[in-house]
């Protein structure tokens, strides 16, 4: 099964019937039609090819699979790089919900090729937000047009997520039409799209520190600034940025992942974005957009794996139903265990997609505080449970599932990167419990009000049992949150368990809300209401299990002697 039709049908419901995006239905359908066609005709055909033929590095740089460039030209010619930007920047000004929905189709078709525009649009948005008019014209507009691509250069070999420990330095080198010019030296690791021969140029956004007067680097994150460092300079010469090596990943193999050396010949030319010391704050705009992009990609991979395993379960005959000795073998979907796995995939995959599109809707509503609260939740839950859905897809396929003849094993490998991309689960958990829940902006109260609205609407109808389960789960979240407010160390020690519980409670609520929107009497509407009951009955009880050691202020892991492992 290579069709993206099942995902498209789900997107139709989520965008038009559930979130009711403020766009003409013909516009929505036309955009999704266009995305489905390009994804099917130009992204999907090289999905397995790029997995088997990784990018290669030689004296001329990094060479990507030749099928990628024409696919991304189609993407650019359709205006999809520009879709979410304002018309004055050459964009279409489309809602974030629509651009996220279209991206899901491309990510499902080929997550590695889709990663190029995901990074590029986030890069361009940062420059368009914080850059000078000259920087926007020089570096953002070519990316919005899709002729140049972008990267984010944060981590270093010795400093992964601990960005306060970066050592890349930027030394002032005068001022020109593009602003303060600097010479950068250092190393950047894990740079997706760090070099390639697909686009005309590459715009690197680089975090670096400006040395103190005595030549030492500032301590911590407060001294970090942000710089635009293009691969090629305006005069056509090559900037002092060199690929020192490629990282060979288990998934996403179509997009190169690079170790970059800056300044081997005296310093890479770069221009500072905004004020000194504001680099990390500015970069969070791109990081958070990328986190939702990663989450959407994880959900899309889960959706495609679910569609493949559902087709397989309907076609594959094996065994007989319980109590039957004779007769022809039945399709494996007739077996209860397989149905459990399919339903579990459905609630994980569609739940993750709903969570991501809900976050996109918050962008459209300018609900920045609530979006900030849900960003680590969406990134983590979609990545972890999207991966769990792909694991189940392999299991449904049986022995065939872990062979390369079937796409589900590659979908699993691709998705395994997402719990690490843009901050690991543990980092997202600390962000949630250490920053977002402690905020004074009322985001948690706003979330609880939205949940109460959904449960209130459901209490008098056929979904009252689901509303009751959602209410109970959130009561547990409330209690634990209050308890941890006085025990900061225990909160950090148990942050990941709390995040998982919070994510499950959030998706349980969204399934209730989706079921309320599925009012029709067709099979799909019945299926969504059934899925909501399944999540409430089978999945939401896990919230209490995750929170039990958190409520107990458990420190068993923290107190394990380092030499006792």
Distance between the termini: 46 Å
| The CATH homology group name of the largest domain | Acyl-CoA dehydrogenase/oxidase, N-terminal domain
Number of strands: 10
Return the structural class: alpha+beta
Average pLDDT reading: 96
| CATH fold label of the largest domain | Butyryl-Coa Dehydrogenase, subunit A, domain 1
Globally, the shape reads globular
The domain tally reads 3
Rg for CA atoms: 24 Å
Name the CATH architecture of the largest domain: Orthogonal Bundle
Annotation field: number of helices: 18
Helicity level, as a percent range? Answer: 40-55%
**What percentage of the residues does DSSP assign to strands (E)?**
5-15%
What does this structure look like?
The mean pLDDT is 96. A hairpin with a 2-residue loop joins strand 4 (169-176) and strand 5 (179-192). The protein contains 18 helices and ten strands. The protein is α+β, with helices and mostly antiparallel strands. The chain folds into three domains: 5-148, Acyl-CoA dehydrogenase/oxidase, N-terminal domain (Butyryl-Coa Dehydrogenase, subunit A, domain 1, Orthogonal Bundle), CATH 1.10.540; 149-276, Beta Barrel (Butyryl-CoA Dehydrogenase, subunit A, domain 2); 434-565. Strands 3, 4, 5, 6, 7, 8, 9 and 10 form an eight-stranded mixed beta sheet that branches. The protein has a two-stranded antiparallel ribbon with strand order 1-2.
């Amino acid at each position: 099964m290579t069709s993206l039709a099942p995902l498209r049908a789900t997107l139709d419901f989520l965008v038009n019937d559930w979130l009711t995006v403020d766009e003409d239905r013909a516009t929505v359908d036309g955009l999704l039609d266009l995305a489905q066609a390009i994804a099917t005709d130009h992204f999907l055909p090289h999905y397995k090819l790029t997995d088997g033929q990784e990018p290669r590095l030689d004296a001329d740089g990094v060479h990507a699979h030749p099928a990628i460039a024409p696919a991304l030209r189609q993407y650019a010619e359709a205006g999809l790089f520009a879709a979410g930007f304002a018309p004055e920047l050459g964009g279409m000004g489309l809602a974030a919900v629509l651009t996220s929905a279209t991206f899901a189709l491309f990510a499902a078709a080929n997550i590695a090729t889709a990663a190029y525009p995901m990074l590029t649009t986030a890069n361009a948005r940062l420059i368009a937000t914080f850059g000078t008019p000259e920087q926007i014209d020089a570096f953002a507009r070519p990316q919005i047009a899709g002729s140049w691509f972008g990267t984010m250069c944060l981590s270093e070999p010795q400093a992964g997520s601990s960005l306060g420990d970066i050592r890349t330095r930027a030394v002032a080198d005068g001022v020109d039409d593009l602003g303060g010019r600097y010479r950068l030296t250092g190393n950047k690791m894990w740079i997706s799209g760090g070099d390639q021969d697909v686009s005309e140029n590459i715009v690197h956004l680089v975090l670096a520190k400006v040395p103190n007067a005595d030549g030492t680097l500032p301590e911590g994150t407060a001294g970090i600034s942000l710089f635009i460092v293009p691969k090629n300079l305006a005069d056509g010469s090559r900037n002092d940025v060199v690929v020192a090596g490629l990282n060979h990943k288990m998934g996403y193999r179509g997009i190169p992942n690079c170790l970059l050396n800056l300044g081997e010949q005296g310093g890479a030319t770069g221009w500072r974005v905004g004020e000194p010391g504001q680099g990390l704050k500015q970069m969070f705009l791109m990081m958070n957009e990328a986190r939702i992009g990663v989450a959407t990609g994880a959900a899309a991979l889960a959706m495609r794996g679910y569609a493949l395993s559902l087709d397989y379960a309907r076609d594959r005959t094996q065994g007989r139903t319980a109590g039957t000795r004779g007769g022809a073998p039945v399709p494996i979907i007739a077996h209860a265990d397989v149905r459990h796995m399919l339903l579990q995939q459905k609630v994980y995959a569609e739940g993750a997609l709903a969570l991501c599109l809900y976050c996109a809707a918050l962008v459209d509503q300018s609900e920045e505080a609530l979006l900030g609260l849900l960003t680590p939740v969406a990134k983590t839950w979609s990545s972890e449970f999207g991966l769990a859905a792909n694991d189940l897809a392999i299991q449904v396929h049986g022995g065939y599932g872990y062979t390369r003849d079937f796409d589900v094993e590659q979908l699993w490998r691709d998705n395994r990167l997402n719990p690490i991309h843009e901050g690991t689960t543990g980092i997202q958990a600390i962000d949630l419990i250490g920053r977002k829940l402690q905020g004074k902006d009322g985001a948690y109260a706003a979330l609880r009000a939205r949940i109460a609205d959904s449960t209130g609407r459901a209490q008098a109808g056929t979904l009252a049992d689901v509303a009751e389960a959602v209410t109970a789960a959130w009561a547990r979240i409330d209690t634990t949150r209050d308890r941890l407010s006085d025990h900061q160390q225990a909160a950090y020690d148990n942050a990941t368990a709390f995040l998982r519980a919070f994510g499950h409670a959030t998706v349980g609520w969204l399934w209730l809300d989706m079921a309320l929107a599925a009012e029709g009497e067709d099979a799909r509407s019945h299926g969504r209401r059934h899925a909501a009951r399944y999540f409430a009955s089978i999945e939401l009880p896990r919230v209490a299990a995750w929170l039990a050691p958190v409520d107990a202020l458990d420190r068993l892991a923290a107190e394990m002697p380092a030499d006792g492992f």
